[in-house]
Amino acid sequence: MHPDDTGLTATEARDLRRLAGFMIPADPAFGVPGADDPAIIQDVIATLRRDTADVKLALAALAELAGGSFADLDDAAAEAVAMRLLAENAKPVLVLGRVVLSAYYRDDRVVRSLGREPGAPFPRGHVMPPTDWSLLDPVKTREPFWRKA
Amino acid sequence: MTITHDTVDVLIIGAGASGAVMAWSLADTRMRILCLEQGDWMKPTDYPANGRDWEARRMTDWEIHPSRRARETDYPVNDDNSVMKVANFCGVGGGTVFWTAHFPRLHPSDFRVKSLDGVAEDWPISYWDLAPWFEQNDRFFGVAGLPGDPGVPDRNPPMPPVPLGRTGAAYARAMNRLGWHWWPSDIAIATEEYEGRAKCINLGHCTPGCAQGAKSGADITYWPAAIRAGVELRTRCRVREITTNDQGMASGVIYYDFEGNEHFQPAEVVILACNGVGTPRILLNSTSGRFPNGLANSSGLVGRNLMLHPWPQVRGYVEEEMDADRGPMTSIWSKQFYETDPSRGFLRGYTLQFARGTGPVTEAVQGAAAGAIPWGPGHHAAFRRHFAHRLVVGIACDDLPEEHNRVTLDPVLTDSHGIPAPKIDYTLSANTAAMMEHGIARATEILEATGATGITTSRTLLNSPGHLLGTCRMGTDPERSVVNPWGRSHDVKNLFIVDGSIWVTGGGVNPTSTIQALALYIADQMKQRLATLFD
């Protein structure tokens, strides 16, 4: 999908991708990509929908902090600007964080790194460990204590 | 132009927990019964658990708050002036589509708070009036649980309880160490095949609809039976107001269909089942020369005494792996602090509810917002310390009625049909605040007994629980209540209210079990009085 189809300009999409890389960097120790991975950022952009306006506001604030194109800053300056933005608790920044995290933590590679199988919960479901109901034994010895009325 | 329909005997507004019960129970009278529902039938294939974006949708089109969810069928609610936010769902099944299915009952003492503790008002009925209806509802709806709980009166859930899992067992061991009561919760989830419904497969994402169909809902239990018995259910029909005739009786309703066409539906009996916000909204919108302050409102209490159930949560993290999002959201409760003990510094009490955990997206979003999971290089290690290690204890506080806590009509905000939207004003009382702090301290002790660290507290949560109660309360005195002890309006004798708005006090439990038992009781009372219903 072309970034323009989502309401983001090409500049905004570029800034978003670079910002995402600072938010969640790749980490070989955990075997995970960064949030700026092409597949993940494509998922972010493709699923913005009702959050587009807030994300655009957050990216405008990012550009303002950068004094221009965030994506063109050198690494040190870009990281400093990114962390300043992310330290804000303004709603647009929280929404941007949510949409990036939502896409990141459903990526197959990330999900597998957590020891889980990727996919929707239904119809697979989960198997729960058997319950040890002997844990209830001490409670069963109590007399009724609800208030008679 | 208004489209006028043939008169029906009984018109029910709202197809949720109580409306469905009324439709099903009254169907055996062979009266012509119609229900108008502003939402749609829900399809299990549309529920978030079918997709990989299941967690993200909980924060967008399956948000529990109607204004943020903003589906076509939702109406907005202005709760800016409330420390707690509302939750609802508009559709066949109503709130029983979008719920955790926790199914405790009010306690006997909840009906006698004035007599026992000198606060609020007694209900005009008792727990024991509802007892047979609780049992019937448990069987029809399908409830899992375990008899023998010393913290509540005897009951007989028809299915075995949901599994404790790793998380429930961790709580149970901690409660045993403390010597405090706990018991497997009553939960309206099929833990085995039940009446044609498949058993729970621990999808874990229970609240916004169960794709498996194991979670009970009025849409998959009462409604199919009611429709088979001849009840008509019209969806996408939003009621604007109840009309009255020259005798001051309800004559029907004006509603809008999904295309915005205006309809008049005449009826001999009108039953409101729209929850503690939707019901007063319709009554306050139903003004006339005879009822200038809204219908059924001679007491001035329509919309007042709103109760929302304050519900702090205390969260901590343990070393060992927990269930996270696997399995039904809750598995056990504690009634240790439910009944009044004045030495605690407050009256009434609370249920402790023990939650499992969340999926990875929710853990990450909440952790990032709280600053517990940082952005940047430290993100991954912090996330892994949190995800699947979470314990959460909820404190379901009794909510006593206060007249200043209320629903009114917003002077500006309207829904998509231009009908004034509800506005909520709600504050916490000193008694409630003391109760919350007591519960938070006990929940903290429990988490410490599990070995949890990083313990934090949320006193009021954005999405939890939003139970809507008390705004048209029942009673014997027309100056102090809106409906009589069997749900009939004191002012309009063919108008009934059967949802949570008729509650006198809030109790410290999720309300659906008692709402449905109360609706079954009222339906039975109506059937016993058919020849004299309007006397």
Q: How does this structure look, described?
A:
The complex is a heterodimer of chains A (about 150) and B (about 525). By secondary structure, chain A is mainly α. Chain A has one domain (about 5-120). Chain A contains seven helices and no strands. Chain A has helices at about 10-25, 40-45, 50-65, 75-85, 90-105, 110-115, 135-140. The radius of gyration of chain A is 22 Å and the shape is elongated. The N and C termini of chain A lie far apart (about 65 Å). The mean pLDDT of chain A is about 95. Chain B is an alpha/beta fold. Chain B has one domain (about 5-355, about 390-530): FAD/NAD(P)-binding domain (3-Layer(bba) Sandwich). Chain B is about 25% helix and about 20% strand. Chain B contains twelve helices and 17 strands. In chain B, strands 1, 2, 3, 6, 7, 8, 9 and 17 form an eight-stranded mixed β-sheet that branches. In chain B, a hairpin with a 5-residue loop joins strand 14 (about 405-415) and strand 15. The two termini of chain B are about 35 Å apart. The relative contact order of chain B is 0.19. The model of chain B has no long low-confidence stretch (mean pLDDT about 95).
Radius of gyration of chain A: 22 Å
What number is the mean pLDDT of chain A? 95
Q: What is the number of helices of chain A?
A: 7
Q: Tell the overall outline of chain A.
A: elongated
Along the chain, the helix and strand elements of chain B come as EEHEHHEHHHEHEEEEHEEEHHEEEHEEH
Instruction: Summarize the largest interface: chains and residue counts.
Output: A-B, 59 and 73 residues
- What's the CATH topology label of chain B? FAD/NAD(P)-binding domain
What is the CATH architecture term of chain B? 3-Layer(bba) Sandwich
Task: List the uncertain runs of chain A.
Answer: none
Q: Provide the structure class of chain B.
A: alpha/beta
Strand content of chain B: 15-25%
Number of helices of chain B: 12
The percent of residues in helical segments of chain B reads 10-25%
Question: CATH H-level name of chain B... which superfamily?
Answer: FAD/NAD(P)-binding domain
Detail the poorly predicted runs of chain B: none
CA-CA gap between termini of chain A: 65 Å
Return the string of H and E elements of chain A: HHHHHHH
